[in-house]
Amino acid sequence: MATPLSLKELSKKEILFTPGHRMCAGCGAPIIVKMVLLAADYPVIASNATGCLEVSTCISDYTAWKIPWIHSAFENAAATISGVETMYRSLKKQGKINDEIKFISFGGDGGTYDIGFQSLSGAMERGHDMLYICYDNGAYMNTGIQRSSATPFGADTTTCPAGDVIPGKMQQRKDLTKIMAAHNIPYAAQASPSHWGDLMKKVRKALEIKGPKFMNVIAPCNRGWRSKTDDAITLSRLAVETCCWPLYEIENGNTKITFKPREKKPLVDFLKPQGRFKHLFTPENEWLLKEAQEQVDKNWERLLAEEACFAPKETKEKASKEQ
Amino acid sequence: MKLKGWKEVEPGAVIKEPGSAMKFKTGSWRSLKPRWIPENCINCLLCWIYCPDMAVKVKDGKREDFDYDYCKGCGICALECPGKKGKKAIVMEEEAK
After folding, report:
1. Residues 6 or more apart in contact with residue B90 via CB below 8 angstroms
2. Do A20 and B72 touch (CB under 8 A)?
3. What is the mean pLDDT of residues A50-66?
4. Class assignment of domain A21-322?
């Protein structure tokens, strides 16, 4: 029986991720890992791409994990876990293992969007029974905030510094969740730690589905985002409410938005508390704010249209009757 | 703690003790300290789920005090705490010198 998704019941479960890890104070990634492991009602084996999470949870002779966990390199977290999963299937066929085990791979945005992209794409296409979770903090935070392809438009990083020459990153971020869905995998979703119930529900749903699954989770980083240590949850909530990080899932090609804010907040609400965007709030960079807002609006409109397009027939009929 | 020499380390850097990071107390990183005020607590456990350091102790679904051995003092719990009637159940205070 699955543990009900109430905090009271969940708190009785053992968290298989221990304190004493050396992530920065107020980091978003350990919150995500904790929620994922709490949501899983199966024994889990995990692999990890190089990144903050990997480095700080297994420093020298210490490990913060209470599950079998493997790290091999930056670019191959997905390939590593797909190898483990293949061995598991073989052992199961030989009758040496009977337990139902789930396989999860964790990677940061650097190890997922950029460096680990080919191995992730390959693993998804081969159809391994695994869940890949990307904690997206929008830059290579571990090595000192270098831009990645997940860095949002206009953000200041050490390799696209805002100054006289450029006003921060001039390219849009890659929409990896959509790219993963385009692999025609059974499940791809986007989540946020601020909406813990939604995140855990998605993890549970993903683990019940056979085949490759992908989840992209926003992970605030106060060092890289130049924000306060206590606002990881507030910022991830604002990202959702401004629709720049919409919560949705694509199941068998059907898009469903799992959280629609009652009132779509302006993007500046999300940008303002972050020092990496502070240069955008000068008169000469006002056009950047406008452009960033337009990008968010366009993506949100597209997502709404996609949802309407693939809605089940009954809801479509209902909607047309209402009109 | 004495660091292990290369002869004592497991081949392949395997760590055989799950959760051994517990031996490393991160509480000394803290500059701000959260204080729990039980009379304002509604036991919503949001502090527990949002704590990045598993430093909120809960027993049988009931909130208990902080685990100051590991709390890094980020303040997420205090910010997210809904409190009772506008009164926060967690406040951040300067760590005593």
Report:
1. B34, B35, B36, B37, B47, B77, B78, B81, B83
2. no
3. 93
4. alpha beta
